Amino acid sequence: MTIAAAAAGQRAPARTIPGTPIFDGDAAQRGYPLNAMCFSFNSESNRMAFRADEAGYMDRFGLSEDQRRAVRSRDVPGLIAAGGNVYYLAKLAGIFGLNVQDLGALQTGMSVEEFRAVLLSHAVTDRRVAA
Amino acid sequence: MSDIVGGIFTSHVPGIGLAIARGQQQDPYWKPFFDGFAPIHRWLAQTRPDVAVVFYNDHGLNFFLDQMPTFAIGAAADYQHEDEGWGLSGFKPFTGAPDLSWHIIETVVEQEFDPVTCQSMLLDHAVAVPFELCWPDTDAWPVKVVPISLNTVQHPLPSPRRALELGRAVGRAIESWTGPERVVVMGTGGLSHQLDGERAGHINVDYDKFCLRNLAPDPEAMLQHDTLDIVELAGSQGVEILNWLAARGAMRGSVRELASNYHVPISNTAAATVLLENSAMVRA
């Protein structure tokens, strides 16, 4: 961003990388309630409280309607679009019984088997040990 | 003068911790990754470092978005791992080296770095998994730890040059420490992987091999890409290579690769393990 643009209170347009959410200040602000809820899931008792009453638990953290809808429908792209960061969302995904291959499949529109096959398409082992 | 005897660089995928807990090291899926640690186990048995200075990123165990430090240095007498939310637990506690931590803090601030200091800090799988890989089957870790966390979560992230320079500042601090400790530095995370977005599953073997080729002889080559270039090349979590750059920066002597193992895939990740030797600088 130029200094002139900054002086005028404008931020440079963010660089975009196709298919790749950049968790920046905008996303961090938008996603704060959702990520705060996910952070609370480090505690087993909080995970149990969420399971017992999802809507009530979301109320405690003040999730936006978009965030609530995405949680209710287990909509992973929606959770990301609503500012969720994958490191925190992983804790919510664990409650839903989803691992990172499941998350990958849900975001790419593939089956889990297809997603695993894509990972395996890069398969290589390359080892060096000095004499 | 404290010696930095070498550097260990490894992926820290949580699933590795689960595989260890389940005893799956010899399973066909896992064996090519775990076998990469045999040279490291031999080297650690010979060199017996006393302290590990670990450059890593927290994944939402210790730090949340309420207060997100770009760099944080632990200065606790001890550290714990705790539940990260998906049942991975049971990692052994860590013994700190607070005197060395404070020396590093003081010395890097003199060099115009401004880290957050943490006298209480939880360490997540990004420290615990590499420790389990390096020192399996031990009742207690045979090294003390100085954890140094880099923000690889919330942009703006530190630049690759800043990460390398942080490591260099930490290296100078360790070299000026008057204690007898032998130090191993560690950089954890990577290599290419992306968990989020439509590009989830992204792996870039060419970029990873570029990093592995240059890590020992010419880490400056990795500064030709800025942080977002690295996100594009290595994936949004592949940017954890910043931790590797910092650890490499701490090695200021004559650096030689002793072992390197690259294996794709482990979970969603291009996994890598590298052992570098750091021969002491010859001082005037």
From TrEMBL, chain A:
Q: Specify the Extradiol ring-cleavage dioxygenase LigAB LigA subunit domain's residue ranges.
A: 34-119
Q: Which Gene3D superfamilies match?
A: Dioxygenase LigAB, LigA subunit (1.10.700.10)
Keyword Oxidoreductase in annotation: yes
Specify the signal sequence span. Answer: none
List GO molecular-function terms, semicolon-separated: dioxygenase activity
Question: Does the record's keyword annotation contain Phosphoprotein?
Answer: no
Q: Print the keywords alphabetically.
A: Dioxygenase, Oxidoreductase
Question: Taxonomically, which superkingdom?
Answer: Bacteria
**Pfam families tied to this protein:** LigA
Do you know which InterPro entries this protein is assigned to?
LigA_sf (IPR036622), Xdiol_dOase_LigA (IPR011986)
Query: What protein name does the entry list?
Result: Protocatechuate 4,5-dioxygenase subunit alpha
UniProtKB/TrEMBL annotation, chain B:
Protein's name according to its UniProt entry: Protocatechuate 3,4-dioxygenase
The answer to keyword Transport applying to this record is no
NCBIfam families in UniProt: PRK13364.1 (NF009901), PRK13365.1 (NF009902)
InterPro entries, sorted? Xdiol_dOase_suB
Q: Where are the transmembrane segments?
A: none
Q: Which GO terms describe its molecular function?
A: ferrous iron binding; oxidoreductase activity, acting on single donors with incorporation of molecular oxygen, incorporation of two atoms of oxygen
Among Pfam families, the record links this protein to: LigB
Q: Which residues form the Extradiol ring-cleavage dioxygenase class III enzyme subunit B domain?
A: 7-269
Record keywords, A-Z: Dioxygenase, Oxidoreductase
